[in-house]
Amino acid sequence: MLHKIPTETLGPLGATMTHAVETCVHCGFCLAACPTYRELGQEMDTPRGRIVLMKEVLEGTLPLAAAQPHVDRCLGCLACEPACPSGVPYRDLISPFRALMKPHMPRSPGEKLRRWIAAQTIPFPTRFRLAALLGRFGKMLRPLVPSSLRPMLDLVPDQIPPAQHWPVVTPAHGERRARVALLAGCAQRVLDPDINTATIEVLTRNGVEVVMPAGQGCCGGLAWHTGDLEAAQAFARRNLDAFPSDVDAILTNAAGCGSAMHEYHLVLCGTPDEARAEAFRQRVLDVSVFLQRLGLRERPAAGARPLKIAYHDACHLANAQGVRREPRELLRSIPHVELCELADAQICCGSAGTYNLDQPEIAGSLGEKKARAVIATGAEVVASGNIGCLTQLRVHLAKLGSPIRVRHTMQVLRDAYEEEGC
């Protein structure tokens, strides 16, 4: 027998979800923006459809098992938010729903194992590095690996770059114009640690002192977006304690991390830390936004060779944080750069945290389409602001035999400085 779930038993997150549900007028403007609707063509795999499903589960008119496959297939890309004329805060619904329903979600043993491995490795750089190295050997034994774990092996890169380490404080070059704290990240520190190195070099070159708090940890985004509320809260509290208050901003160079930190008020909703989380998130900025507002003190001089760059909007930068203009303007500040836009730029590349692991077919299809859109520009380099997107692009460009280089916006800017010999 189905029973209505009283909203009051869901706590403050339940009230947040109810508001999001009530805001939707079911107009359907979100359908064209939704990647899973484009892939699957089903009403229930749209934001509008999922809102109906989640509402019915909460009201007790639909079993959770009927809604779960469609909720699981949501990328959380938030492309529906800018497309929505009613301003439905979809982010206030999808992650809270997953968190509150997690204890009731039926999972196969293989799914549980894969999710547990991801949760115990990706947010912890030392463990993740070891897991990635072991995964390279696992590829040789792929036929013997359970099918539920094979998507993890498929994403293991052929080479793991050496670990890099950064001082707690890196002083500004010349006169100090600002002081910031930088999130080091977790997966990024293993898959492409040079992104942090490039970020620090660009910031300090432009008069910014960079603090890398020793006590920081994972942003909690992977846990939050998969419904692991307890882990997400623990990560959030750790960062609330670790980051200093005597800085001009808290910077991120990974869109997913920045988006997660902007949702700390939801992660800690109804707890004694909610007000602290609200104040914290107001100080979080993507590095491109901070640099564009501050203004580049040192611009790459004319003489850098002409370069054609395609720019890919990371969903959690463009949709979740509304950051589109700033990284483009930074790239255009490099002399002789031609910036190319992608066809269907608003459509997710399919990375979306652990989505590649949980929905490999949809993720693979989206990744190939995005790679083909990049190739169609004729660019030499594709730039983006999120490690998940960069990894996805590398995998699918390589599968298509493309030589296009995949770089973070900060790496492109750092490379331009180095080319001119500044």
Our Rg estimate from Cα atoms comes to 21 Å
Strand order of the largest sheet: 1-3-2-4-5
Beta-strand content bin: 5-15%
Number of helices: 23
CATH level-two architecture of the largest domain: Up-down Bundle
Write down the domain tally. 4
Give the rounded overall mean pLDDT: 92
List the helices and strands and how they pair.
Layout: H1 11-23, H2 35-40, H3 47-59, H4 64-72, H5 80-83, H6 91-101, H7 109-121, H8 125-138, H9 150-154, E1 169-170, E2 178-182, H10 187-191, H11 194-205, E3 208-211, H12 221-225, H13 229-242, E4 249-252, H14 255-262, H15 264-267, H16 274-281, E5 284-286, H17 287-294, E6 307-311, H18 315-318, H19 325-332, E7 337-341, H20 355-358, H21 360-376, E8 381-384, H22 387-399, E9 405-408, H23 409-420
Parallel strand pairs: 2-3, 2-4, 4-5, 6-7, 6-8, 8-9
Antiparallel strand pairs: 1-3
Helix pairs in contact: 1-6, 3-4, 11-23, 17-19, 21-22
